[in-house]
Amino acid sequence: MTNPCMPHPPLPKPRAVPIVLAVLGGLCALTLVGPIQAQTKATKMAPTSQANTGQSGVLNQLAQTYVTVNGTAIPNAHAEVLLREQLARGVADSAELRAAVGETLISQTLMVQQASKLGLDANPLVQAQSALAQKNVLSQAWQQSVLGDIRIEDEDIRAEYARQVSSLGEKDYLIRHLLLKEEPTAKLLIDKLNAGSKLADLARDYSQDASTRERGGLADWTNTVNLLPALADAVKLLTKGQFTSQPVRTESGWHVVQLEDVRTNKPVALEEVKPQIAQILARRKLDEKIKALRDKAQVQ
Predict the structure, then answer these.
(1) Section 27-43 average pLDDT
(2) For 223-238, what is each residue's pLDDT tens digit?
(3) 235 contacts 169 by C-beta, under 8 angstroms
(4) What residues contact residue 143 under an 8 Å CB cut-off, 6+ apart?
(5) What is the pLDDT of residues 5-16, one digit of tens each?
(6) Is the previous residue joined to 35 through a cis bond, with omega within 30 degrees of 0?
(7) Angle between helices 124-149 and 270-296 (to 10 degrees)
(8) Burial level of 294, CB count in 10 A (0-12/13-18/19+)?
(9) Among residues 106, 99, 100, 36, which one has the least CA distance to residue 72?
(10) By C-alpha distance, which of 263, 245, 267 is closest to 255?
């Protein structure tokens, strides 16, 4: 969840880099997860022969009928997409999952058939939703295609890493904070702090920041470069244990901030964040291509 204290993502910490399985991203690579095909109406999915692994073979497999419902043929491609979506969410591949995918396709097809009988497919708003869904799928497929062609050089990664490290301050801060919608409420809670209340307790009862509320308002260690300017200025003036005497206004609302601890900043080693930096640079190049398209577009 996005931290309302931070305007931009900080230098990423080491973590597993997720594999994006967009609806058509995998199909562009022309490889099958299974591959899969239907054997019976019981919606079994089973691997097929790996002999024909060329582009035409994969396309043929995707086009083959997975199951037929009331005369409507459902291709393997539909099952492949649903299976990929579940795998992308971290669901383990299993016979049960593949059977569930089949059941979902059958139920979905039956509902679509009933919707058509009722004329819902002629509803302008339903048609608009369908068109927008198709645009979304195609735009994601285009993005995955562009990202697949982008090459990020090591020297670019080193330069971006150096830029981010040089922008960091010398200290990291551990803070608690309250996020409120209105200034009078923030001032009232400062009065409670002055009277002896604990910010951690007040955060659980009053803070609007869902990402820190259950932790008593405690945020992760952060550098001031990653904080919104008003919060960064306020934090630098605090000593350990001290809280702001007045609410701090940001675009997210009104904050009451308490400084828990301070430490010397130690940037994450380059090798630990190379994949994340490469993703950042690739996304930046994608954004440049999108901007170029907008600059050339005739919008009336």
Answers:
(1) 39
(2) 988 899 999 999 999 9
(3) no
(4) 22, 286
(5) 544 443 333 333
(6) yes
(7) 130
(8) exposed
(9) 106
(10) 245
CA distance 71 to 138: 28
Domain ranges of the chain: 25-149, 169-264
Amino acid at the residue 289: K
Are the beta carbons of 95 and 60 closer than 8 angstroms?
Answer: no
Residue carrying structure tokens 């490290």: 165
**pLDDT tens track for 176-197:** 999 999 999 999 999 999 999 9
Q: Which amino acid is at 60?
A: N
Topology annotation, domain 169-264: Chitinase A; domain 3 (3.10.50)
Closest CA to 38 of 92, 105, 85: 105
Amino acid (1-letter code) at residue 163: R
Q: For the chain, percent helix, then strand, then coil, each to nearest 5?
A: 50, 15, 35
Residue 84, both tokens: 């990929």
Q: Is the dihedral of CA 102, 104, 107, 112 positive or negative?
A: negative
**The two structure tokens encoding residue 225:** 């470069």
Q: Is 250 helix (H, G, I), strand (E, B) or coil?
A: strand
| Alpha helices for the chain (secondary structure H) | 25-29, 55-63, 76-88, 95-117, 124-149, 154-167, 183-194, 199-206, 210-213, 229-236, 270-296
Place of tokens 């009053």: 206
